[in-house]
Design goal:
The chain is an alpha+beta fold. The chain has one domain: HIT family, subunit A (2-Layer Sandwich), CATH 3.30.428. It is built from two helices and five strands, in the order αβββαββ. It has helices at residues 6-11, 59-75; strands spanning 21-22, 26-30, 38-44, 83-86, 102-106. Strands 1-2-3-5-4 form a five-stranded antiparallel sheet, with helices on one face. A hairpin with a 7-residue loop joins β2 and β3. The longest helix has 17 residues, at 59-75. The chain is globular and about 40 Å long. The termini are far apart. The model has no long low-confidence stretch (mean pLDDT 95).
Length: 110
């Protein structure tokens, strides 16, 4: 855990964030500044600063993120209508909190 990392604090239960899902590796919660009717964040509990900081040993974690996203899409009701999965990488790519996290975005009426 990085002492000043907001997502480390959230993942370790040091905030009053309500989780949609939690296990020993991940937490999932609603984005506080949603860009869509459904906007949740899937956050590994282990601190990894950015996608650029992944190592070969992190392959299973990234796979787990995507498999969990598929299940969370069902939970939040967008699996059938469709959704986006997005990583922002570094400042130029829109990353604001430097702890990897996967955005699951959807819920638009088409």
């Amino acid at each position: 855990m990085e002492k000043d990392c907001l997502f480390c604090k959230i993942a370790n239960g040091q905030t009053e964030t309500e989780f949609i899902y939690e296990d020993d590796k991940m937490v999932v919660f609603h984005d506080i500044k949603p860009h869509a009717p459904v906007h949740v964040l899937l956050v590994p509990k282990r601190h990894i600063r950015s996608i650029n900081d992944l190592t070969d040993d992190d392959g299973a974690l990234i796979s787990d993120l995507f498999m969990l996203a598929k299940e969370i899409a069902k939970t939040v009701g967008v699996a059938e209508s469709g959704y986006k999965l997005l990583f922002n990488v570094e400042k130029g790519g829109g990353q604001v909190i430097f702890h990897i996290h996967l955005h699951l975005i959807g819920g638009w009426k088409r």
